[in-house]
Amino acid sequence: MDKAKEFCLENNIKVNELKYIKSALTHSTYAYENADQNLTDNERLEFLGDAVLQLTISIILYQVEPELDEGLMTKYRSLVVCEDTLTQVANDLDLGNYLYLGKGEDLTGGRKKPSNLSNAVEAVYGALYLDQGLEYVQKIIKNHLMRFIKLAVAGKLVYDFKSRLLELVQGTRGNSTMNFEIIKETGPVHERTFTAAVNLDDKRIAIGTGNSKKEAEQNAAKYALDVISCDTTGCILTEENIVVE
Which of 28, 72, 216, 243 is the most exposed place for a label (fewest CB within 10 A)? Predict the structure, then answer.
């Protein structure tokens, strides 16, 4: 069975013409390697799909969350319409297995590459807009992304943990302070492991490790977010007897 047709059947997607979906699943490397077939890759559909996606998420936020101001709607939309979220959508659809990839791209892990997956999701939305119209594709987008919208509005869709943590502490208007520090480095130069600590009001509340200082700080921030609560009066620990080495 053709990959595009199987993708639609497996994900209950209605189409009139498979050519749009096939283009949405076609990576530029595949089109290049099969130039004799005069294939169209998914880059233009990705551009169109991104516009449809931005519009749809904006409408949902405007209608479902009437208390949100422009700044918050923009923030939540950017959390939903991003590579991390769209990669999760792609994985839900098992989209990677249906991509048409060039041989080299396929051999180097192209079916799991976040950029390929997120771009293809947007391209699929562009294809559905052309094939089925705005109302249908907005229904599909809502089905795929509503849970992420709810998480974003609830403050639980966080990928940049360090920025989120800094934002919380800054909201205390100076009543709490926080800093990060690298407390340990181990391993050879070409394979270092870093350990970062988060200190809140001069008390160490979380640590995290990673293969870079940035990764270690992000992991430490992730753990810190699980154990603190902040308001304008300051931050408090929500878990007692935290043991941090």
Answer: 243
